[in-house]
Design goal:
The protein is α+β, with helices and mostly antiparallel strands and 611 residues long. 53% of the residues lie in helices and 19% in strands. The chain folds into 3 domains: 310 residues, PAS domain (Beta-Lactamase), CATH 3.30.450.20; 66 residues; 174 residues, Histidine kinase-like ATPase, C-terminal domain (Heat Shock Protein 90), CATH 3.30.565.10. The chain is rod-shaped, with a radius of gyration of 56 Å.
Length: 611
């Protein structure tokens, strides 16, 4: 618990509005930043997933077009073979039909009608020599009644092609074979038309992983294999997918692929991540700008909200301090109907009741004091009356006259002291305050107590901390308090003993005020019983044979009017100490004229021999 309190003290400042502001920032601004970060990150991942899915769909559509192109060529070849077998055309008509097919489908580079012995009958290339196709796999497969499509081959001109072969049926028997060489240049347009951005492209690979269609035709002629080996293996094996890959330069690319399963080919799409996410970066920048603006607005709102929420607390603290000083004249103007308004209303009611109770208590105390003073005056008057009645008879008695001259002034001083205490106790009203220097007040008090101290042979041990801040109070009233404490110490101290006066600054964030000046007066006289210690500040409670017991009660009221505290401590060595604690006021709170006046006053006191 102590550790958590220590951490709390270090993290949070002393002012309420600052604490509220920090709490609002922690629970509003910080989650807003975290939420913005995760939203941007989530949107980036979602965008990446969408881009890869779109690329994958483009690849699937492209493979469909390539497949459709190859299938349409195969179907055209089948139709032509059916025409040749059904119509039983002569050589010239076969040649016309084949040439017409090649013109209609430019994808066919060369078409040949082959007899069952493997010799070409006619071709689409007029005027060229005829070939023997007996050893070719396509001829052998189609001769047995099966359609055939070869793997991709590379021609002498480095261009890729494949061979198609279909049987020519005449009724229920095979009459020959129709063989065509398909130039893959016919499908380049499909691949070349897939373009997105400056770096986005598509290419087609065959069953061996060679590039057979690419916007850069040099790669086709050189027989280059793609740099994405894993992707090529996946697409050749019939998989569809998308992923991120890095090239040799550690640049990231988005890659999507889709297979042409019948041919064991595949189309691959790739684009640089930087280009694919170019728009995303703009969106991310705009998102961060929006988040920063939101955070800025949230902090401004939190600042003013904390000020607004703490304002009643500040007013309540100020009002409580005034109330502690006996000021019951001010009350809150209540404009709110929430819990704060109810609190202020309750505080006003409490102040009124305290004021009424204080007046009733003071009247009761004054009555009690009057009764006590009347009793003391009665006893004293009886004694004075007795002496005065005896004066005519014993006016020549020198011993009587000497005792009479001592008794009368003593009794008059006692009357004066009782009446002065009574006046002080009954007239503790609002006092005028100003900024004061503790050093100056203390020096004035020491000057007043100097004579009594020297008479009783008592020593002063004065310890004053340097560079003390100012206090806000009434000089005469504070002198009265400290002088009373010193006089009580003188009364309780034997000849030759020491009275210690210690003045220092205390910083304690958990105390009644974070920074205060403590004036401690200690003596080594006789101890005080615990019962007396508990009641020492009560009015009319005294352990002396003479006096009304109002001195310390008046001191407590004066200190209370200053918003301070007074405490009594009995040490184990029977040393009694009284501590007066007054809130410190820093010099920056003073006006320049007040600073100059105080400097001159301190300088003048130092010249006169101040501490």
């Amino acid at each position: 618990m102590k550790i958590s309190n220590s951490i709390y003290e270090r993290i949070l400042p002393d002012r309420i509005w600052q604490q509220i502001f920090i709490i609002l920032v922690v629970f509003v601004v910080v989650p807003l930043i975290i939420l913005g970060f995760f939203l941007i990150r989530t949107s980036q991942n979602a965008l990446k997933t969408t881009v890869l899915r779109d690329y994958e769909q483009i690849a699937v559509n492209a493979t469909g077009k390539v497949e459709e192109k190859i299938e349409s060529a195969r179907q055209a070849l089948h139709v032509t073979a059916s025409i040749l077998g059904t119509l039983n055309l002569d050589k010239w008509r076969q040649e016309t039909t084949i040439v017409e097919l090649s013109l209609r489908y430019p994808i066919f580079a060369r078409i040949a009608s082959v007899d069952l012995d493997g010799f070409e009958i006619v071709t689409s290339e007029l005027g060229t020599s005829l070939k023997k196709r007996t050893d070719e796999e396509g001829f052998q497969r189609s001769k047995s009644g099966v359609s055939y499509i070869s793997n991709v081959k590379i021609a002498q001109d480095k261009l890729p092609f494949l061979t198609m072969a279909v049987p020519v049926w005449q009724l229920d028997r095979i009459k020959g074979v129709l063989i065509a060489e398909v130039s893959l240049r016919g499908i380049w347009d499909i691949v070349d038309n897939i373009q997105f951005g400056k770096t986005g492209k598509a290419f087609l690979v065959d069953q061996e992983g060679r590039i057979i269609a690419h916007p850069d035709k040099k790669l086709i002629l050189k027989g280059v294999k793609p740099k994405y080996e894993e992707v090529v293996q996946n697409v050749i094996s019939g998989s569809t997918g998308s992923l991120e890959v890095k090239d040799v330069n550690a640049d990231t690319y988005f890659v999507a692929y889709s297979p042409i399963k019948a041919l064991r080919w595949g189309i691959v799409l790739d684009q640089s991540e930087k280009e694919a996410f170019a728009f995303s970066k703009i969106m991310r920048m705009h998102s961060w700008i929006l988040i920063i603006l939101s955070v800025f607005v949230a902090m401004i709102v939190s600042f003013f909200l904390s000020k607004f929420m703490s304002r009643p607390m500040k007013e309540l603290i100020d009002r409580a301090n005034r109330l502690a000083q006996g000021d019951f004249d001010h009350s809150f103007r209540i404009r709110r109907r929430d819990e704060i308004g109810k609190l202020l209303f309750s505080f006003n009611q409490m102040a009124k009741r305290l004021q009424k109770a204080q007046k009733e208590e003071k009247l009761s105390m004054v009555g009690k004091a009057a009764t006590s003073i009347a009793h003391e005056l009665k006893n004293s008057l009886v004694l004075v009356k007795t002496f005065i009645q005896m004066l005519p008879k014993r006016h020549k008695d020198e011993k009587f006259i000497e005792e009479f001259s001592k008794m009368i002034p003593r009794e008059l001083d006692s009357w004066n002291r009782m009446l002065k205490n009574m006046m002080d106790f009954s007239s503790l009203e609002k006092i005028t305050m100003e900024y004061l220097d503790v050093n100056i007040i203390l020096q004035d008090i020491l000057d007043l107590a100097k004579f009594r101290v020297s008479q009783k042979n008592i020593h002063f041990n004065v310890r004053v901390q340097s560079d003390l801040p100012m206090i806000f109070g009434n000089a005469d009233k504070l002198k009265q308090v400290i002088l009373n404490l010193i006089n009580n110490s003188i009364d309780a101290t034997e000849s030759g003993d020491t009275i210690v006066i210690d003045v220092h600054l205390v910083n304690n964030a958990l105390a009644w005020t974070p920074e205060y000046i403590e004036i401690k007066v200690a003596n080594s006289g006789q101890g005080v019983f615990s019962e007396d210690l508990r009641r020492i500040f009560e009015p009319f409670y005294t352990t002396k044979s003479d006096g009304l017991g109002l001195g310390l009660s008046i001191c407590k009221e004066i200190v209370k009017q200053h918003g301070g505290r007074i405490e009594v401590i009995c040490e184990e060595n029977k040393q009694i100490s009284f501590a007066v604690q007054l809130s410190a006021k820093r010099a920056f709170q003073l006006q320049e004229t007040e600073k100059l006046w105080l400097k001159k006053k301190v300088f003048r006191k130092q010249e006169e021999g101040v501490l």
